[in-house]
TrEMBL record:
<feature type="domain" description="Glycosyl transferase family 1">
    <location>
        <begin position="190"/>
        <end position="351"/>
    </location>
</feature>
<protein>
    <submittedName>
        <fullName>Glycosyl transferase</fullName>
    </submittedName>
</protein>
<dbReference type="InterPro" id="IPR001296">
    <property type="entry name" value="Glyco_trans_1"/>
</dbReference>
<dbReference type="InterPro" id="IPR050194">
    <property type="entry name" value="Glycosyltransferase_grp1"/>
</dbReference>
<dbReference type="Pfam" id="PF00534">
    <property type="entry name" value="Glycos_transf_1"/>
</dbReference>
<dbReference type="GO" id="GO:0016757">
    <property type="term" value="F:glycosyltransferase activity"/>
</dbReference>
<keyword id="KW-0808">Transferase</keyword>
Length: 370
């Protein structure tokens, strides 16, 4: 089978093959495992710092296309000039493919969505990694991709992999997931958690979109309310210095720590030793860090965006934030005083998350490629 991948993620040449954004590579290695040929259409240059990993295969064919940027009139003009070339390249490569795999949303994904219309007989999948919630406020280009991918008149022979279970979807749409751990890693539920001092962790980039300052202020409220709590940040970003300054100015250094970026093994240990995982994001696709936390028994505390309410079963497996500090403090304070409820919530989270292992993920991807 000839697999064609259309993606915005840059494919970068190395001495031994190609590399790209690490989480994407981890997934694509599974897609590429049982196919005879792989072609990737993507940009091949990227200047900013990027967490990368190498593809397992070194026989990948890469067709280079330019990045599209619309952040200034000059970039927009250049991008408009590039679009016909990209469309032509996509058409040429799609004609050769047995299976077309689109990575959406994004501007390259948008062009892939438009081009696939001309190949109704070729099997296709699209991984929509963003928020599929029909009510979510999103850019016009994202809304258009969702409409086109869902439309069974224009888009045929397609399975669109989305996060969450949404009502009134077309036959093109398939609820999907992602995974981090193996079935062999599943261990028995431990009931010795949820005693003071309570441990919280935040895993993710320290940027405005993840609202790390809200996590700090919430823990600060709980501490002032008499609860012994700690919060550890795993991740880095442009807001770190500002957050550290807030912690120092408010004498929270003993309770709130910044651990920086850590490897998967360190994160796994952190989940296992934490009571709660907090993520007050503005937007998510599949918030992997919540699923990972639940896998190890940590209770998620998160904003009700994208598929998060579904993941948390609308409050049975975790806490949905109101983004009102007083209300959220009261909700969590009541929970901290009810250990039996915390244990039940943790157990339900474990049972749900441990359905979604890498073994199951690999099996489902192989089904899609048949």
């Amino acid at each position: 089978m000839k697999l064609l991948v259309v993606t915005l993620a840059p494919t970068l040449k190395t001495d031994y093959g190609f590399k790209s954004y690490a989480p994407y590579v981890k997934e694509m290695n599974i897609w590429m495992e049982d196919v005879s040929e792989v072609t990737i259409v993507s940009p091949t240059k990227y200047k900013p710092v990027l967490l990368t990993d190498a593809f397992k295969r070194n026989d990948i064919t890469v067709k280079s296309i330019p990045f599209l940027k619309f952040s200034s009139p000059w970039f927009a003009l250049k991008s408009v000039v590039f679009i016909p070339f990209i469309l032509f390249r996509l058409i040429l490569e799609m004609k050769k493919a047995d299976h077309i795999h689109l990575r959406c949303p994004g501007n390259i994904g948008l062009l892939g969505c438009l081009t696939q219309v001309f190949f109704p007989s070729i099997k296709k999948t699209a991984k929509y990694a963003g928020n599929w919630d029909p009510k979510a406020e999103q850019p016009l280009s994202y809304r258009f991709q969702k409409w086109l991918l869902s439309n069974t008149f224009w888009t045929k022979n397609m399975q669109v992999l989305v996060y969450g279970d949404w009502f009134n979807q077309s036959k093109n749409i398939k609820s999907f997931f992602t995974a981090s751990y193996r079935t062999s890693e599943i261990c028995q539920f431990e009931s010795n958690r949820f005693h003071a001092p309570f441990s919280f962790l935040f895993v993710g980039s320290l940027v405005n979109g993840k609202r790390p300052i809200y996590a700090i202020k919430l823990i600060e409220k709980l501490i002032k309310n008499g609860f012994f709590c700690s919060l550890k940040f795993y991740g880095d970003g442009i807001k770190r210095e500002e957050l550290e300054t807030y912690v120092v100015n408010n004498n929270l250094q003993e309770s709130i720590l910044f651990m920086g970026n850590q490897n998967a093994d360190s994160l796994k240990l952190a989940y296992q030793n934490s009571d709660f995982s907090i993520l007050p994001s503005k937007s998510e696709g599949w918030p992997k860090v919540l699923a990972e936390a639940m896998f190890w028994g940590a209770i998620p505390i998160a904003t009700p965006v994208s598929c998060v309410p579904w993941m948390l079963n609308f409050g049975e497996r975790g806490v949905l934030l109101n983004l009102d500090l007083e209300k959220d403090k009261m909700t969590i304070s009541k929970l901290l005083s009810n250990r039996e409820k915390l244990l039940l919530m943790s157990k339900k989270g474990i049972e749900w998350s441990q359905q979604y292992t890498l073994d199951t993920f690999e099996t489902e991807i192989k089904k899609l490629l048949k």
